[in-house]
Amino acid sequence: MACPMCGGRGIITVRLPDGREVETACLECLDREAEEAWEDEDEVERLFENGELF
User: Fold this and answer.
1) How many Cβ atoms from other residues are within 10 Å of residue 3's Cβ?
2) Distance between CA 24 and CA 8 in Å, rounded?
């Protein structure tokens, strides 16, 4: 399956403890998104509040 952000083949599948699998964007896209988010303090705060940024 392709990465939903860039269309590349770097999709990441995460297996949860209950056995379900969750697919997410490739690491390059996630890294790029995180770098862009740090530039916007409001976005960083939103990501922390939503649990999207660790």
Assistant:
1) 19
2) 12
